[in-house]
Amino acid sequence: MELVLIYAFLVAGLGYSIAKDRKKTKQALFIARRILVKMLPSLLIIIGLVGLMLGFIPPETIEHYLGADAGFSGTMLAAGVGAITFIPNIISIPLAASLLRSGAAVMTIATFITTLTMVGTVTAPIEIKELGVRYTLLRNIFSFIFALLIGLVMGVILI
Amino acid sequence: MKDRNNNNTFKHSPQKGGDSQNSASPQNGPAPGGPGGGPGQGPKVSPKEFVLLGIVAAIFIAIHFLYPPQSRAVYDVSLSYLQEMALIIPPVFILMGLFEVWVPKSFIQKYMGKEAGVKGIGLAFVFGTIPTGPVYIAFPIAAAMHRKGARLMNITIFLGTWAAAKLPQLMVELKFLGPSFTALRFVLTIISVVMIGLLVEKVITRKENKELVIEATD
Questions:
Q1: CB interface of B with A, residues 70-129, below 8 Å
Q2: Model ipTM?
Q3: What's residue B39's pLDDT?
Q4: In chain A, which residues have their Cβ closer than 8 Å to the Cβ of B162?
Q5: Most buried among A152, B46, B104, B197, by the most CB within 10 A?
């Protein structure tokens, strides 16, 4: 069902673009191909890693470290990993989904996705260069706190 | 365990080594433009990724001989993920291409700097959800907006939505994590981003004011 929505969006977007400017549409498709080529290795790596992880690590283990029983320490672990790593969203979400399907807690996964995106340790040098140390520190610290809050609320609402 | 991992249908006929070949073969596809990282106009893929991909492919082949029972599960899961990705990736990337063509980054810069108030906040959201690139592309844009006089809060909102609530990402999230997860995280992210924006702005302006007072009394 979600796919229908996404494809409907695509058809609308493409239709509008073709009607307005064929050349630009062609350019857009070229950009899409460029993104695909650039992302393909990472996508395949993550697909392989998800397969290996789910094939070898029993769900009980994932549940033990990241599930509801792990409680807040599991969430903090995910938040920390999310904050210090830099994985493009499109790649991280299938990974997060596989963890969720194997028994990780909603709170932990929601926090992981949010710190992964909003808190950037790897990108901090660029942020500091452009926006200053104080701004970077404040934004990232507040983002980390709010990522935990988002996870907490989601964990309570979606069980 | 298999059914726990996959609620989607997928072929239950893993052709043993065939699957590992399958997921490894596209490695040859982008290779001409990839390794070496030369200054060609082709898309650049870092050689590091190819090494990693090679390692994963090697593990895939090795487990077929070393851990036959687990390898079946690994191939099944990977294949089903490959199928899920193959369905979602093309429309997402094409939409990313369309956004990049129709909403160039200079356009974002031009309008974000000008508008203030509620309109400015709204624009920060809209421009934050539309873009396609990784967040480090957003920092120079944010800095330029700030120099042009955009409010600090709007810049934080812009960066936050760009990072955590981009449309292409939301579409992938919708497919893999479902509508309720995606919708709830989106709403909470928007609320959080506004609060983060307010907090950062408050702390920074208060400090600046203090410094001004100190300077004045000196």
A1: 70-71, 73-79, 81-82, 84-85, 87-98, 100-102
A2: 0.86
A3: 38
A4: none
A5: B197
Asked if A17 contacts B102 with a C-beta cutoff of 8 angstroms, the reply is yes
Tens-place pLDDT, residues A72-127: 888 999 999 899 888 877 888 888 999 998 889 999 999 999 999 899 888 898 89
Task: Choose among A7, A59, A118: nearest Cβ to B4.
Answer: A59
Q: Where do the structural domains in chain B lie, given as residue ranges?
A: 50-88, 105-217
Q: Between A and B, how many CB-CB pairs are < 8 A?
A: 261
Residue B13: strand, helix, or coil:
coil
Q: Cα(B127)–Cα(B102) distance, rounded to whole angstroms?
A: 12
What is the DSSP annotation of chain B? -HHHH--S---S---THHHHHHHHGGGGSSGGGSTT--S-SSPP--HHHHHHHHHHHHHHHHHHHH-HHHHHHHHHHHHHHHHHHHHHHHHHHHHHHHHHHHS-HHHHHHHHHH--HHHHHHHHHHHHHS--S-HHHHHHHHHHHHHTT--HHHHHHHHHHHHH--HHHHHHHHHHH-HHHHHHHHHHHHHHHHHHHHHHHHHHHHHHHHHHHHHHH-
